[in-house]
UniProtKB/TrEMBL annotation:
Claim: Transmembrane helix is one of the keywords in the record: yes
Pfam families: DUF3007
Domain of life where this protein originates: Eukaryota
Keywords, alphabetical: Coiled coil, Membrane, Transmembrane, Transmembrane helix
Signal peptide extent: none
Coiled coil: 126-153
Protein name in the entry: DUF3007 domain-containing protein
Database matches in InterPro entries: DUF3007 (IPR021562)
Transmembrane stretches, start-end: 50-68, 80-100
Presence of keyword Cell inner membrane: no
Amino acid sequence: MASLPLGNSPSCSLACERRPISLLAGPLGQWDEGSWDRDKKPFGYSRKDVLLIGLGVTAIGIGLKSGLDFAGVDPLHAGNVVQLVLVLGLTIGWISTYIFRVSNKEMTYAQQIRDYESKVMEKRLEGLTEAELEALVEQVEEEKRRLGEQQVK
């Protein structure tokens, strides 16, 4: 059996996306001209961002300890306070982001379900004939008219 390019397995599901592989691309696709726009991620989702976050937390800890030392707090107590503040702050912050994502339904599983449902609907629409599409459009328009009449009442 001939091998398939990475990401194009024979067991691809409906949501599988097949795309050509550029021979000029490096391991992360950085040489593909269109990849920079396609690979833009929100802050916190790249190696550079993770390193910056780690350095920032470390700098905050060092700064807080130095500030407490400068204020005359015992170094042992200052270390304990810094550790307590950072661990509690990071834990509460992380948990709050999780609660925010759950309340807004932005979890990975929910997003995968939405993506799958939209792909299934696209596939079903592609399989409809012209007459079936026209009948569907007429049904949608009739439903809009009925809803509009109900809202007026």
